[in-house]
Design brief:
The model has no long low-confidence stretch (mean pLDDT about 90). By secondary structure, the chain is an alpha/beta fold. A hairpin with a 5-residue loop joins strand 5 and strand 6. InterPro entries: ITPase-like_fam, Maf-like.
Length: about 200
């Protein structure tokens, strides 16, 4: 597991694991003042489907938690912990399905160009000592500047558009500078709502 660095460390009475490889989520959790380690879930997200985006992001966040918990048990890490350990998993998506073709991916992104998209993000916190689990979701509306054709070409060539709901990963370095306005919280759009995360941490403790 990889360690995360805090900007202004809190007086933590527990250990924290962030179950995500997202640089944006790492940065947000560090901004919140937490010390944490990183562990990724490596689940097959494509195999998990739900009709409602709110349900999908919740189920995916829980599936990530289950996968990481299984790995931690298999390597005997939990028995060695002297303090309570909390696991945070999350998922974010644009309220739209993954594009099924290059043509559809281009159309999705062109629709956002100069327009808007609704984002929904989940957070799921598990207390590995007690088994207590709490989750929730928030949504935000994102308004985009014009998205140049060369950016669309680069995103499609990279293949990222086919892996995420709505065909657009908001925290991607090519996408983020083209976000004009956010109605809601920026951290929700980036992948980890600070207020929701704090609330769920307190609930599982």
């Amino acid at each position: 597991m990889e360690a995360g660095r805090s900007v202004a460390p809190k007086n933590q009475s527990f250990e924290l694991i962030l179950g995500s490889s997202s640089m944006a989520r790492r940065a947000i959790l560090a901004e919140m003042g937490y010390d944490f380690t990183i562990m990724t879930a490596d689940i097959d997200e494509q195999s998990i489907r739900k009709e409602k985006p709110e349900d999908l992001v919740m189920v995916l966040a829980e599936a990530k938690a289950d996968a990481i918990l299984t790995r931690l048990k298999s390597i005997g890490v939990l028995e060695k912990k002297s303090r309570p350990t909390l696991l945070i998993t999350a998922d974010t998506g644009i309220i739209r399905e993954k594009p099924s073709s290059e043509e559809e991916a281009r159309q999705f992104i062109r629709d956002y160009s100069g327009g808007s998209a609704q984002v929904v993000g989940s957070v799921f916190v598990t207390n590995l000592a007690t088994g207590s689990r709490k989750g929730g979701w928030e949504s935000a509306e994102v308004y985009f500047l014009d998205i140049p054709d060369e950016v669309i070409d680069s995103l499609i060539e990279e293949g990222i558009t086919f892996k995420v709901a709505g065909g657009l990963m908001l925290e991607h370095p090519l996408t983020l500078p083209l976000v004009d306005t956010v109605v809601g919280t920026a951290d929700c759009v980036m992948g980890l709502s600070k207020s929701l995360t704090e609330k769920l941490i307190q609930e599982v403790l």
